[in-house]
Specification:
Helix content is about 50%, strand content about 15%. By secondary structure, it is α/β, with parallel strands linked by helices. It has an eight-stranded mixed beta sheet, sandwiched between helices.
Length: about 280
Amino acid sequence: MRIAFVGGGNMATALVGSLVAKGRPPSDFVIVEPIDAQRARLARQFPGATVTASAQDAPLRDVALLVLAVKPQQMREACMALRSDIASVPAVLSVAAGTRIATLADWLGGYGRIVRAMPNTPALVGAGITGMYAPPSVDAASRAVAASVPSAAGEVVWCDDESMLDAVTGVSASGPAYVFYCIEALEQAGRELGFSAGDARRLAYATFEGAVKLARASDSDVQTLRAQVTSKGGTTERGIAALEAARVKVAIIEAAKAATARARELGEPSADVGPGRSQ
């Protein structure tokens, strides 16, 4: 079963790499990438894969899934180039933010078997989580093939409605930036309290990694775990009080809602999809 990727950037590389690490041979993949240097890199990284400069040169008629992994501002052009070859492809998976299935179907000349996925950047190290949606026009077999791609690089959460992918964007796709922001603050606190930059970073990284590992291993929810660490009259209670006074929890919730609202805006047909657009 061959899978074709249109776009050979970081996310496509991460997904192909994860599938290869899970046992798929590179010869199972067709990658369309117009940039010479990236094509050369892909050919070195995945010897045996078919790497071409254009969709017209790619053997798409025998693939089980075609993955659209180009930037949103390049999506229309990529879809238009696929119109004449897409009919025989069982399903298409888009991993681009914002662009709705109805819009993709229009650009693909009425093609309807489209699945959308919203991965996040930890997929680059095999620790991602991806929100997915498939309309009824996509059968169970094609849904399974589509899900096999992001699940090789982490967890998958299926959404019952396409609009929920905007919330996935706000919570988990933009979420790593919120986490990095918090790590950045904890590092800075460590430096201001007298630690070297290296030790402050080690303390911050290990604290986040350890807390998530503990939460996953525990039967308790995070509210209970937080209460267990927060002794009455102790140091943690004083720190949590400062966070509450600064409304940090409210600010994080508002950040996720703001990112979700922006994702909805970017999904509108009139939205700006120029080079400045970002996830």
